[in-house]
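Our working data are protein records whose layout never changes between entries. The record below serves as our worked example for the rest of this section:
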Amino acid sequence: MKLIISTAVSRNPNVKLTKTKKILIGAELVPMSVIHMTRERFPNAEIQSIYGSSEAGVVGAFSFLRIPADSPIPEKLVYKLAKPGVRCLLFDEKGEIIDPRYSNSGILVFAVDPEHPAKDHPNFVNADPNDKLSTFGFLVDGSPRVCTMDWVEMVSDKEFSVVGRFDQKIKVNGVYVDLNGLKELVHKHLSQVIADCYFIHTSERKIILLYILQEGYNPNLTSADIIRVVEDMFLLLNVSKVPIHNCLRLHEFPFNDSGKVDLKKLKRIAENVEQYGQAVDYPALMVTRTFLTKIAFKISEFSSQILDNPGLYGRNFYIGGVGFDSLSIGRLALALREEYGVEISPMILLSNSMSPKDVAQLVVDILDDKLVIPPTIDLAAEAAKLDDASVTAEGFPPFVYPKEVRGIVLTGATSFLGAFLIFELAHKFPRAKIYCLARTETEKLAFLRTYSNASRLVIASRNKNDPWYDVRDRWVGLRGDVSKERWALSDERWKEICEETDMIVHNAAEVHWLYNYNELKATNVLSTVTVLQLATTHHLKVVHYISTIGTIAMAKGSDKPLEEKMYSNWNLSGGYSQTKWVSEQLINKARSRGVPATIIRPAIIAGDSGYGVCNTDDYIWRYVEGCIKLGICPANASPVTWTMDPVDHVAKVIAEIVSSEEALSKFVFHISDSEHSVITEKRVFEIADSVGWTVLQDTREKFRTIIWRNPSPDNHALLAFMRMLMDLSFRVDNTNTRSIYPTPCPSPELVVRKSLFHLDRVSYLDQPTAAETELKDEEYPDVRPFTRTGRH
């Protein structure tokens, strides 16, 4: 909430969001300053706060409070425990129960009856009985209990006010001091100077203040100045004498994978404040998704570990000036070789002005002719290990293609392609239920998520009078997660789809060009294992696997069309292509044992041919957007071609293939063809230029030079996108596809024009420099609610 408000205030210091009706805040400890800040910026909103954690959730111990919009902010937040059967207790510092007759404050503990099902939860079963303050444990009477480690004041047997974390209460000069309380005082009285702060108690019993200076405030304030200001404030407020032993200014606080401030990392910084103080003078590395930045962060991490200096992590320092010697710089060179397979001399690493970002650029250049993210394991061996011999047609009656498909399981229904597939499949199979899987809390939400996503993307479906799109009565939402065993479906739902469906269209995948195989395995590979289990449970079902042309290891400079067949070469770049290759192998092995299946490989899936709605997370549009913003592209005399097909065409072709019994014998299908699906990089930017965006076409060498002279995360990303798109110049054979669906795809030039129109309308691109463009179309519906379209 603080981030949301600070972002809004940075754009408009007087912002008041008066139309917001309700604000929901959830955390173990919500500072009063956040509540006051929320009321100030959302004056007409009711504020609701939830007290809870994943640990407390094991026994269902969630507590709530409500502050109506017309009520003043209370002096303190009082939460009420909502779930019957859960009781509140207080522990003292030794883990003994406090008698409420003598004290109403202590460490909050939630307990349930001894026979509560939580007693068999692994966290309770494996709890340490000797640790009275462990998160999970049992009371003397056998009642499961959760110790929150939050110090609270009880208002009634079910109501309490959170004072702060118990481990944030330290004894100073014989008096307990709450470090969270000190933080709140700084927020309340010194917000003009300090934007955010944390007080950390180190192992040497020192109190360290870590702070972020308010933007625009005097940056020349010394540590002594800050300590004096804070201690003077404590003195004026009659706070017990609290010695601040040191303080350190940070540019930002580190966050963990859960999106919370990483308190462990702050603790390490505080423990090494002298070392860290030397490092913070170096600029922070910008956090982006580019391969170059990812390598730079890794180099700073290696350096931090080798020199045992946590202050170097995430900083762009001079490698030769932070303490490397001949032995330690050799360790850094060895780490780079092991991580990226590149040889960089230690003397180069120590040469003048080399920084993590400079070394990262050197690594990228060396890898330019190598796979960016090569396989980290033997993919063929991985496919053999995951292959399940019990996935077979043996034991089932001979497979007969169903005359009338009763049900279709569609994974990836919330993806860009999935939204169009829903309607195409429903049209091809007019009596079939379409089971759409989505990661939601309930099945109703699964339906709503897939339905609203399809309405956003398939603009024609908004016409309620068109019976072609009237498929709600056959649209079934499944609450599940393809990365989990049996997709985390209930036993009833799993049994239903095993018995009442005849076809599976497996379209789900996580797409990320920086992730390796292991990071994508659960969603992209193990989901396919589940598909094959489903296909051979109760009765045989047809499996149609939506793969990618990227599963083919392409020889550079080869002019031979990519054939519709299986490929054994797994020397592929990127975890996405690697996981799709393994899944293809699993499908092929199952097919060899009689499981009916096809593999369908699209190339680039572009915007739809009707309205140009496209997936702005695709790197092709990020590349076009970046070049337009820069005003230059590397397309002069470029031989690069892109193979792309509009998403509505891809969906139609897939629907035609999955409805064809003939397709099972042909097995592998390529959507694209080299005659109708190809457009040159040069032509894409000529179209952009012709419709209003001035983009100078120059050589790749000149493009690289401009990027290096204007360094920024976005610009460096353009180099990575450029290399990736250069690998999309290939020819495709689609004989099998044409035998079933002979109609060629719409012109890629038309698709690019309409996609640019869409990107302009949703403000993804900068405004065209020309006054008018030829893309204006009075028939185009309003799609401004679109922003970025997700894949899953």
Q: What stands out?
A: The two ends are 26 Å apart (CA to CA). Residues 391 and 590 are 6 Å apart (CA to CA).
